[in-house]
Fold this sequence. Notes:
alpha+beta; Jelly Rolls; seven-stranded antiparallel beta sheet
Amino acid sequence: MDKLILFAKDLIDPATEIHYAYHKSLKDITIEHTHDFYELFLVTNGKAYHNINGKTEIIEEGTLVFIRPNDTHFYRRFDSENCEIINLAFPAYTITMLFNYFGEGFNKEKLLKQKHSPHLKLSKFETEILIARFEGLNVLSRGKKARIKTEFRILIAEIFSKYFAKIKKEVNEEAPLWLLKLRDEMEKKENFIAGINKMNEKGGKSAEHLSRSFKKFFKETPTDFINRLRLNYAANLLANSDETIVEISLIAGFENLSHFYHLFKKHFDASPKEFRSKHQKMIIPY
């Protein structure tokens, strides 16, 4: 049987830019299909098999998936479990406008051109929040189409900036999930400032195993990774604040000032003072 092709013109109201559906059962959404629009779907309960472009994945409560035009997919029951899904469908021009607004720093190629659909697993708390945000669209008056469109655009901007902006082009997809999550956690300021001990604590592995894995998949040592984040943070403080260089060194996690100067000079080919002189603009008076 030929796969079903769906079209935005038949499904999506251009005045709202959205088709909202809350599927409480798999029975009406299991036909293999493709389409000329985008979708976001969130699994709100249960578990199912999701076949996307020939690859079968297990989706469960909290799975958030981005489906692109021409992706081919369908769902299949997982054992005897049911699966509930909220689906948002929207036209291609909505994503084009959003990604253009995000600018070149947003890695849209990773989202649009990878073979299988971008997806991630949310925590139970995040899932509950996102369900409430999705359902918020469903309680708006159907006659207030301009407001529906605005609320929808705000929602997908939040989703892509919060959940999909961190999908990196350089991610080694062979890296284990625990290591990918650890690297994301260590990019938070409070963690990279705390340093290698915090990384070992959060990694839950031996320091030797963590170091070997990091070098294997990311081609740098954990210490080099942490120092790079600290140095970038220090550089921004030099350019954007009136803190002294000594204070910035400590704020960024460097307890040894001469070590900070050495690493900074090596990384930016300029001393902290030279870097500040070149990059700091007049601070707005207050």
